Amino acid sequence: MGTGLWILIVIVALLAGAAIGFFAARKYMESYLKSNPPISEDQLSAMMQQMGQKPSQKKLRQMMNSMKNRS
């Protein structure tokens, strides 16, 4: 086999590996963020208290649902 063919095979393998790696990492991160959300109700409650609001359970659930629906 010629040198040009080997170079072509290496380039195609690198591109395929990069594409597969990208999609695998994306799927892993989506499932990770779904099971471990970046903010919890306790954190949201603390944030609202720091802003001077008194968080009710209804308001916390509304905000959590709106954040889940956005993603």
Automatic annotation (TrEMBL):
Compartments it resides in: Cell membrane; Membrane
Keyword terms, alphabetized: Cell membrane, Membrane, Transmembrane, Transmembrane helix
TM region(s), chain numbering: 6-25
Region of interest: Disordered: 52-71
InterPro entries with a match to the protein in the record: UPF0154 (IPR005359)
Main location: membrane
A single GO cellular-component term on record: plasma membrane
Pfam families from the UniProt entry: UPF0154
Membrane topology listed for this record: Single-pass membrane protein
Family per record: Belongs to the UPF0154 family.
HAMAP family named among the record's database cross-references: UPF0154
Name of this chain's protein: UPF0154 protein MOO44_06250
